[in-house]
Amino acid sequence: MRAIRNNLLLQFSIVSFVLIVLVIFLAAWWLKAAVEEVVLEEATAQAVDAVSRHVSNQLLPEDFQRPMLEEQRYHAFNDYVQRYVASSRIARVKLWNPEGRVIYSDDRSQVGRTFPIEDDLAKALRGGIGREISEPQKAENEEERNLGALIEVYVPVRRPGSDEVVGAFEVYQ
């Protein structure tokens, strides 16, 4: 300990090392946050575009009253989603009604199931956009847990020609 007190070069080296490590840590944290924000912005823009250009126009008013369990309706909507919305980056697509019921999912086993309305879904059902990067841990995510970290984006679905929110569109990337 005495050697450190008497050696200014050693003191300077230790302080410099600690400061450099701190700067590197802060820069890495800032860079990670900046990259996550860019990724979330891009995923959000794609989801909003999909809803405004494609999904909203294919939905019928009765779609939000009951899940798409009827074979013909499910296949017609699913074919449209696969053709115009799905991509290699999209892991899952869901459509929710205001009661927390999945009225459409590209995983048909989830259609008709009701889940607790979590914060991001609630935000979309109020007209905002919910989004996050997370490990799938919610009750609704049991089928996606093996996919690792996902970008979740929730976009409000409005009745055409109106500001009324009738449901939410969810995309996992």
Describe the structure.
- This protein starts with a helix and ends with a strand.
- α2 crosses α3.
- Strands 2-1-5-4-3 form a 5-stranded antiparallel β-sheet, with helices on both faces.
- It is elongated, with a radius of gyration of 23 Å.
- With 173 residues, the chain is of the alpha+beta class.
- It has 4 helices and 5 strands; from the N terminus they run αααββαβββ.
Q: How many whole angstroms does the radius of gyration measure?
A: 23 Å
Order of helices and strands: HHHEEHEEE
Cross-sheet strand order for the largest sheet: 2-1-5-4-3
Structural class: alpha+beta
- Give the overall silhouette: elongated
Quote the average pLDDT: 78
Separate helix tally: 4
Low-confidence stretches: none
Largest sheet: 5 strands, antiparallel
The helicity comes to 40-55%
In terms of DSSP E residues, the strand content is 15-25%
Count of individual beta strands? 5
Distance between the termini: 54 Å
Assembly context of the chains? single chain
Can you lay out the helices and strands and say which pair or pack?
Blueprint: H1 2-6, H2 8-58, H3 71-84, E1 92-96, E2 102-105, H4 119-125, E3 130-134, E4 150-158, E5 165-172
Antiparallel strand pairs: 1-2, 1-5, 3-4, 4-5
